[in-house]
Each structure stands twice: as structure tokens, then as C-alpha cells.
From TrEMBL, chain B:
Superkingdom of this protein's organism: Bacteria
NCBIfam families cross-referenced by the UniProt entry: OMP_RagA_SusC, SusC_RagA_signa
SUPFAM superfamilies assigned to the protein according to its UniProt record, in alphabetical order: Carboxypeptidase regulatory domain-like, Porins
Membrane topology: Multi-pass membrane protein
Signal peptide interval: 1-29
Organism: Gelidibacter salicanalis
Keywords per UniProt: Cell outer membrane, Membrane, Signal, TonB box, Transmembrane, Transmembrane beta strand, Transport
Protein name: SusC/RagA family TonB-linked outer membrane protein
Subcellular location: Cell outer membrane
Chain coiled-coil ranges: none
UniProt xrefs under Pfam families: CarbopepD_reg_2, Plug, TonB_dep_Rec_b-barrel
Domain (TonB-dependent receptor plug) ranges: 123-248
Amino acid sequence: MTPFRFIKEIRFFMKCITLCSILLLFLGCEAFLEADSPNDQIDQSDVFQDEAYATAAVTNLYSALRDGVLLTGKTNGLSVLFGLYADELDYYSSSGSAFEAFYNHQIMASNTNVKSIWDASYNLIFMCNSALEGLDSSQNLSPSVKNQLKGEALFVRTLVHFYLNNLFGEIPYITSTDYVQNQKVSKTELEKINQMAIQDLIEAKAFLNDTYPSTERIRANRSVVSALLARVYLYNEKWQEAELESSYIIDNTAIYNLGPSLNEVFLKSSKTTILQLKPKKAGDNTDEAVSFLFSSAPPPFIALNPDLVSSFLDNDSRKRDWIKEVTDGDQIWYAPFKYKQNQNTKASQEYSVVMRLSEQYLIRAEARTHLGNLIGAKQDLNMIRNRAGLEDTTASNSSDLIEAILTERKFEFFAEHGHRWFDLKRLNKAEEVLGPVKNNWKITHILMPIPETELLLNPNLAPQNAGY
Amino acid sequence: MTKNHNLCRRRRIYAGCLFFLSISLTLSAQDLLVSGQITNGQLPISGANVIIKNTNTGVVSDFDGRYTITARPTDSLQISYLGYTTLIIPIHNRSTINIILQEDATALGEVRINAGYYTTTDREKTGSIARITAKEIEGQPVNNALEALQGRVPGLEVTQTTGLAGGGYTVRIRGQNSIAAGNEPLYVIDGVPYDINSLSNPSLAGLVLPGGIINPLNTIDPSAIQSIEVLKDADATAIYGSRGANGVVLITTKKGEIGKTTMSFDVSTGINSVDTMTTLLNTEQYLAMRKEAFANEGITVYPAYAYDINGTWDQNRYTNWQDKFIGNTGLNNTFKSLISGGNEMTRFVVGGSFMKETTVFPKDFNYRKTTFFSNLGHQSPNKKFKLQLTTSYGQDKNYLPTSDLIRVAKFLPPNAPQIYNDEGNLNWENSTWNNPYAALESTYKNKTGNLLANSVISYRFFEGLEFKTNLGYSHSNLVEKQANPHTMYNPAYGLTSTSSNALKNEGKRSSWIIEPQLDTSHNLGKGKLTFTMGTTFQEQNMEQLGLYASGFINNQQINNFSSAQNLKILNEANSQYRYLALYSRLNYNWQQKYIINLTGRRDGSSRFGEGNRFANFGAVGSAWIFSEENFSKHLKWLSFGKFRASYGTTGNDQIGDYQYLSNYNVSNSNYDGLIGLYPSRLYNPHFKWEKNKKIEAAIEAQLLDGRISFEVAYYHNRSDNQLIDIPMPGTTGFSGIKSNLNAIVDNKGWEMGIQSRNYETDFFHWNSSFQLTIPKTQLVSFEGLENSTYSSQLVLGRPLSIYKLYQYSGINPGTGLYEFVDYNGDGEITAKEDRQLIADVSPKLYGNLSNSIRYKNWNLDILFQFVRKNGLNEFYNTEPPGFMQNQPVGVLDHWQNTSNPGYLQAYTSGRNFNAYYAHIKFTQSDAIISDASFIRLKTLSLSYKLPLKKESATSCTLFLQGQNLWTLTSFKGGDPEQISGFLPSLKRYSLRVKIEL
């Protein structure tokens, strides 16, 4: 082949390549790569520029509590799990479940319910922090809306930390969405947790009004925050502050009163309610009713501990109104009957009650006892006893009174959000009460284990709680 | 198409030769005029080359396969035709020689191999491309073409996730490259990329089809497939750029063939069943275990809920629950038909199939599939313009229980009550058990439709310049429903149909692609230069809608969502993926001796944030055919020899859409009339492609006139910049964040294949092949692994599929409980410090040995598959022996007292917390790892072709086929390949008749 021919061939080939390269021009349009945005997602910066969106981002915090974690009436909520863990509920379903581990005190660091409480709680805390950061940087919202929403987000964030603290002991108190920090965070000291919780609640109170932001008592106002604050002070043995906060609610008789009938306490319009969670749809009732009620014996899942039921006085109308008997003709089992609707109704009748006035009376009674105001304390305690059809308390000294208040709380708050367990724990009664009835009881059971995976992922969270 | 093209060219060359001969030679007196017809046994072969051996003299057979050639009586004729074995026939003074050519898929340098954007041949290929043809697929009674690949291709691992028809597959080409992003190969069907991801919602199907994975290829009839090419190395995959890292699977559907219009009918009927089950305790053994467990804990009064031994249940009952639930025989009926024909200008094929398969579960659960496909090819008389139109549509329907019954079959106590009471109603035994048949009331149904259409239009301006456009469209839609009538629950709950509920999920995905492409080729120097360049525009849209309905006036209405008292939309989502690319290939072939192949691609994808959208990928491949060199040409025993090597980069973008955005999700978790809004994820806009470098070297050779051929390849792939959903501790609010991590994963290994034609006569053929793959996956580096969230899952220098486990050290003779090695010697056994034993469950080697024997009209194909690996055994995911759950018989070997220590610890009912705790650790120790190696008779196909009259093209073939017939293994946990908790691949027998007219 001659050199000329070779060059000619090369030239021909170059022509072809040039032609091909014209195709390259197509690549000029990078705009082609702009994909349509998905219709089920909204850019974060847009969420907090719009009042409806911003409000939805905050009300979603309540739905997370209602459907997902801690206060949920579903079986993964505190009401069921810690009813089983303490002496309120008995377990009747198949062996080997995570529920049984709670009932038999066989919880290990790998327990799935414990992990999901931890993960879902911190996810909820992230939502609160994301809302708080979004609201802080928002330009378009009116100050009143902004304050209301910030107050609610702070309230929920503190509530979740409060429960985590009481379940797990020292836990990280998270106040930002920064994952770089949060992935290697260490435990916050107990004192610091309480200090931050109280500070956050005081701040939340300042952001909120006395009126509820919606027509029903389903979102936080100032009284809701006071009610939680009263409980936090009680757990911290700050008696004066606790009395002050509970009085703030008790004294507001126009809004809150104990009402005439025990059967109305858990209705959505109840005057004893301070905060309740509204069901998802009109006609829905509570998950508590679905979890607790059963209609034939033996119970398919859980039932009230018969010892608890028999410890009620016979004339205690709570036994009549809040407990349901189910029998197979031979033996009797008991279901918690505070919530009575486990099916849909035309309009919703019951909402899940998170905080109610009774607790404030009993908080104040306990605080007053410690402050030496035994008369005031008895008055508060008798308010609750009398409403249940019982006569005045016979306790005369402060230690008897403390005991009487604990007993009253057991009858008043059974199967509600683990009140019983947290009372036994904070009053150091767990060993005395549960030791004899739970075979596997150990003093270290006072705290839940930090989820195993969490310690593996973040060694800074060490040490694991004792005993796990 | 290309086949035809070559043929025409060759024919012209030979015609030229003939002309030359006719004027330069005169007929010698001894010369002889030989004539005859060339057929494939049935049809004439036109265009076959007939050459006088060791000369340049030759002719080409005409349209009727006839030829006439002048030769000396002592000459030999060499007859060759594309795709057929070349024959050499001595003339021996005969004037009429009729020749039957045998099809030969292994003939090097003849069959065109699809490499995606171009074609090549076995002789000229510079990359690693494995090929499975219709013949191998047809020999197996399988529902999905992927299953037909199982155990057949070196470097390819196919695992069926469930033995149920209509399920999913895990496919890995040369191991797992990505720690966390997708590891799925790219699938391309007739030039259209095909998204293999399931449209199913795992919450509907996940308990019966693992992960809710439904493979969209289920709706493509395996018999519609002409060939499947598996592209493995950089040379073959770099032209697919960002989607080539995990290899590419090219599926080519059947095309029409020139000649008489033929029609075929193919009817088969088969049975399938579970081959290997775990042996469980019988009632006597089980109750003894339970009693001993309670006795160990000093419990004499059995608790109220221990119904199995406290007298509530009949202690003499025995039910083999495995037989009851997964021991039934499934039936498969298939009917297929195909019409094909055409001439030089136009060819067509139309085919369809119908299939129904029932399950091994009780009740009438079943899977049904209907498919249709067609292809039309046309070219203009001057052969400049060409057109290919391909359309296929497949629909399948699956009807299943919501949950795989294999779990309940294994765990249910053997003395559990009877299913039905004497009145024929479900028996709840006074609320003492959850009747597993009630769970069958909860059903799952799905319906999938898949449409694939594409056209390839090409125009050849002149020899050496062709413009081609590939236009493709695909559409898949899936509707699935899960019905949960209240009758699935214990009537003790007092539920009515107002508590019945149903879930529905609708998924749609459509995609279009346009790929204009220019091909040029030219002789340059002593070689040939080929250049290809094209662009890709692709858009894919996906929609998903999830509904929940509850409260029906009766359960007949449960499929009618409009009659539900409550209806809510669970999710409505859409996503769009856009993709843009420029690709090119430059190939230079110097005298069929030295070949260099350059490929490259520039890719842009909408899955990444601005600034990270584009990346370049490329590869260089080369081959040296040393058998063409002078030094080896005289070696009679070496008919072909080639070295090839390649190096290049590919990428991986399988991370899902929109992951770089900081968004809030809209949900239906209404509160006070407001929608739910929650943060979608931790925000990271900076992540980019995962890159994968591949290097390969191989030798290919044919010995003894092609009687023996072999290929040995060594490959090494390295992936870095790993796209990971880095696990985050819960305190961050999420379980992970999408990010690139400075981690390197290596996959390297050897692949070997040997084929031999052991024996060949006119009526007896025996071929064998042996393939072996020795893979190795290794985590080479991982920035900050020790402190990272992956430290519990990965170890440097080890494969990705490992478990970090406690090391079981035996039973404490005193307590009778398990003990484990305390690695850090702190006196306590803790997860982080003491789970230090590393168990690797990836395959160490795998391969197959196959034999094909033909004797007259009989044909026998046998394929043995073998795998060497470890697996999770029968103790994985179990409760402690002594609980109210049945156990494998292995638990009988247990601690009874200090003199009978046994293999397993003392039984426990759960009261002994230490025993429970020890058992949990036991299930996280090396005691759950066993040798799961196996040798399996994967395929056996025996066929007999009925002797019909020779002249007629009519044929009738009878087949007896089997799949997964026999397994040799020491593994005790059921099938060594099965995914824990789901049905293993089934054993299948099928009888089949194929008639061709």
C-alpha cells in the first residue's frame, strides 16, 4: 500500500469520526438530566415558609407519638410493654416473643422492642429539632404561629427525652440535627438532663398561650407544658416547684375539673383531660382499646393481673367502670376497660389520653406531703378517692400518706403509659414489689439495656447499663 | 442480520473465485463432476461453501442447497457453513455426494456474539463474554430464563430466593462489588435496558416472596429467547459505563429464519416438590424434650400456657406439619407455540405460551402466565436499509398465601391440635393455638403485565458506513392485593367482617430509550479498523400507589375497595430517572492476528446532585491469536490459540432516585385534619458514582481439530468510592446516611472451561464440558472501619459475606450450659469484644460438569452443579430446645448430666434465664455454621425424536426432563441453597412433546 493511499484512508476515516462527533452536540443539553421532582416530597426549605406545611410538620410529632412510639396505644407502646414488665398485665400468647421477654424479665441488649423504642424516640427528637431549626430560619411565618409551633416542638422533644431518661438512665440529650455530632455523642449526665429538660419546658411555656391552638385538647398549650413540668419536678423531688406547676392547672377550674362520672374520663370531650391524641380519621377510636380488649376466654394476648384486680376495694367504682370481666364459664379474666370502643364508631368517641387532671392532684398531694402540708395533701388525695366512691384516706403521718398516694396511683393509672413501673422505680419500690412476683427479677432491671447495635455503632455511649 | 450480511459477502468472493478458475483452468481428463445437496437433515442449506481441500477451488450451494464442483477423484471436499461443523469428505470416485451438516454452537469464529452495541465472534472477541443459547435453555423445565443460567456460566451465581413460581432471583456476576449499593447486573433485552427491580411492596408480599422481590423477567417465556450473553470484564462492560460495574446480561429474543414457514407446538406437563426437608422431632421426642426442660428448672406444675404438655392438648397426636404444609405436589402445565419463516428480504417469528403451576402448599394456590412475542425483520433489495421490529408482552398472575408455610411447618409442636374440628370448621382448641390454616385465609394475589417493544432501523450509506437507531419502550405494571378477612383470626376476638382489611399496591414503570449510532469500518494497512459511536437518551418514570381498605359488609366484598367502610391511601409516590450518555468503540484487527479494542462512555445521571452528574468510563482490550503465527501454524494439534487481556473502568449508580435532596415526605398520618410531614433522610448532597476497575487475562485454545477447547481466565475487579448508606447510631435520628466511603472491595478469581467432543460418528455423538470458578471477594481497605458503624459486619482482608460470631467452646460440665471463647479475657462474653470468630459463607468454588450424548434419535443431556461453601445451618434463628416449638432431631444430642454432656446444652423452658441467654449466644456463634457444599443433578433431559418420513419437515420429539433431581450434601438444615424461612428450589419432573410442522 502506498503512503498516499494510506493517508487517503486515514482522511476518510477521520471524516467518519467527525460525522460521529456531531452526535456529541446532543450532550450539550445537560438540562435533560433535570428529573421531575417527586410528588410525595417537599423541599425542606419550603416546608417552613408555609403556615399549613409548618403546622403539619409539627402536628406530625403527635401522630408519631400516637402511632409509633412511647405513648402509642399499640402493643409496642409503654402501656402494654411496661404493664407487662411491672405487675399490671399478664401475658398469654406464644412463647419466645419480645413481649414475653418483658413479662418474664428476660430482656437482653438485643431486644427488638427496646431497640425500636430507642430508634423511634430519637427519630422523633430529630423531627423536633428539624422543625425547631426550620422555624428559626423561616422568614415568612408570623411570630405568633412561629412561637406556638416552637413551643410544641420543644414540649415533645422534652417529653421524649424524659421518657428515655426514665427508661435507660443517662442518655444523650440531643438538640440539633447535626449527624456528625450526633453519631458520636456521649451520654449526658443525669443532672444535666434534668436541668436541660426543665429549661426547655420553661422556654416552651413562654412560647405558648393558655388557650389550645385547636378546638380540642389535642395539641400543647401552656397548661400541657406545666403538667409535664410538674411531673418532671416530682421525679426530681423539687416539691415546691411541683406544687406550683400542678396548682396552675388545678386552679384553672373553668377548663379542668374532675367531672362527675368515671365513664366519661376517657371520652374525647372530658374535662379532666389536659392532653389527648386525636385518632387518625373521623370514626376511629383508640389503639389502647384494640390492644387491651378481648371478648372470649382465655385471653388471646394479655389480660390484667388478677392480683391487681383483687387488690381493689370492693366499693371502688374504678373496679366496676374501668375493668371488664371475661369468662369461659369457669374462670374469670380481666381486661382494662378505660377505653371501651375497639371498633370504629360513626364519630370518634374516645381519644388517647396522655395527661389528665387526676395526676396533677396526686402530684400535688405527694409534693405537699413532703413539704409538710399534710392537710392539703389529704385534700388532694381525697378528691381522687371520693370520685372513685371511696371514703377519705385514713393515713395520718407522712410515710403512710406517701404509701397511700402510691396505692392510689396504682388504681388510678393502671395500664396507662407505664405509670406504675415509673412509680415503683422512682420510689425504689421495684425490688420489694416485683422481686417476689417476677422469677428473673434482678435489681439491674431498673434500667433498660442500651440497644446492642447502638453501642456497637457508637462506642462513646459505653458503658452498657449494669447487668446487660 | 449480520449473519446474512457476511454470508452474502462471502458468496460474492467465492463466485469471483469460480469465475477466475473457469478461465484459467481447463478440465483435465481425470477430473470428475461432483454434485449433491447440502441439508441440515431436514432443510436445504443455501450458501454453504464447498471447497476442494488444500486448494482455493470452491463453490457455494444454491437456494435448494445444491452444488456442483469439479474435482479429482482422490480429492476431499471441505464443506462449511456458518454455525455448522465443517465436514471433510473424501470423494472416493463418487459423482453424487449428499451432505448433512450438523449444527455447532461451539464453532469458533463463526457464530456472531452479541456484545451490545456491536457484535463479535468467539475468535475475535477481546473481552469476556459467556453465552447460553436456546438449546441449553430449552433443555430445562424452568419458569424464568435466569433459572436456566443457574450453575452454567463461569463467574455467574444465580440464587432463587424462593421455590415458588413468580418469585425473585439474586444474580451476581463475579461476586459482590458494592458493600451497600445495588449489585444487580444491567439487563438489556434486544437493546433496551430493563429495570430488574421489583415493583412490589414488601409489606404485601414480603413474607411469601422474600423481600417482596418479583423478578420482571418472569413474564418473558424462556423459549422466546435465542441467546443470553453475559458480559463480565472491562472490555465488554465499559461501553455500559456507569451501569456496567456489576456486569451486563444481554437477552436476545428469537428471530425468524429463512426458509419454509414452520410451526411448532410444545406441550409439557410436570410435577414439582420440595426435595430436602429438615428432620424434626416426633411427638414422643418432642414431649420428652419439653418435660426434661421443665424438670431441669424444677417445675413440676406445668404453666397454664404450656398447652402441649399440661394436658390441654392430646399428647398422642402426631402430625408431620412439613408434609402437611410444604409436602404437597405442585403441577405444571405448559403450552407453547411458534411460527417462523421468511425469505431473503423479510423474516418473521410469532410465538406464544401459556403456563399454569400450582404450589406445594395446601389449597389451590397457583401461578399462571401468558406470553406473546413477535419479531419482524426486513431489508431492502439493495440491502442498504434494514429494519427489526420486536414486540413482546407477558402477563402473569400469582395467587399465594400471605406467608410462606415453611416456618410454621418447622416450629409447630408435633402434637398441636387438628386443623379442622369434627364439624369441618377450623379448630381453635379453645383459643390455645393460632390455627395455621386460618393464616391461609390471608391471601396474596398479584398480576403483572410487561410490554417490551423496540425497533432497530439502520441504513448503510456505502460499504463501511452505517447509521443505526435503536428505539425502545418498555412498560411494566403490577397490581397486588393482600386480603385479610377477619376469619384468619381466632373467633375469640369477636371480630366481624368490619375488621377485615385489605391492602393494594399498584406499581407502574415505563421507560423509553433512543440510541442513534454510527458504525464505520475500513481496511487500514493490513488490518481492519472499526469505529462505533452513539448516544443514549433514556427516561424512566415510576409510579406507586398503596391503598388500605377495612370494614366490609361481608368478606365477599373484600376485593372491592369501593365497598370498604374505610379507605385510605397509604402512599402515592412517583419518581423519574433520566440518563444521558455518549459511547464509542474503536477496534483494530490486524490480519486476524492482533486485535485491539478501545471502548469508552461518558455518562450523566439524574441520581446525583449538580456537579456530580457526569463521569467518564473506558477500557482497552487486546487479543493475540498466536495460532496464526508462523511458529505455531505447523502445529497440527493446535487448531486455535489466543491470549487476551483487558483493563478499564465501569461504574455503579444503583442507589435509588432523589437521594441527594433534603426533603420532607408527605404521609397519610393525619393529625387534626393535617397531612403528615416528616424529614425523609439525613442530608448529604455530595455523593458521587461508585467506580469499579477491572483487569483480566485469559487464554483460549482449541486442540485436535477442535475436539478439545478450553478457556482459562483470571480476573481482578476493584471497586472504590463505595456508595454506602453508612449506618448511623439511632441518636442521629436515622439508621444511616447515603455517602461515598473510602473503601475498596476486590473481587478476583479464576474461571475455567473445557469442552470436548469425545466421540463423533454419524449416529453417535458424545460431548462433555466442565466449568469451574474459584472466586474470592475481599475487603481491602475501609477508612476508619474500627470506629465505624460497619465494624460489627466487616473485617479487613475478608469477604463481604461474613458473620462475626462468638466461638463456641463447649458445654460447661457443671451447669450444662454453652460456653464461648472470651477473646479479651475480661470474664464476660460481650458482643463487641467477643464476637471475633469470622465465618465466611461465600462460595469457595463452584462449577458444573455436563454431558450430552446423542445416539440416533435419542438425546441425553445431564448437568451436575457443584458448590463448595459454608452456610447457616438448622440451628440458625431457633428458640432454645425445650420451648414450645419443634426442633430438628439434632437437638436430641444434648446435655443430660455430667456423664452425658452431648453436643447441645440442657433443655430449658425459658425460666432459666442463663440457659436462654446462652442459647441466644449459641445462635450467634460458629455453631450455626455448617459445611453447605453440595453436588446436584441440576438438569437431566432425555429426548427421543420419532422417526418420521425423511422428506417431510414434520418432526415430533418426546422429552423427559428433570431439574434439581438429586443432591449430595452433608448439610442438615434442609436445602443447602435455600434462604432461611422460605421454600427452596423445587425438584421438577416434566414430560414434554414438541411437534414441528
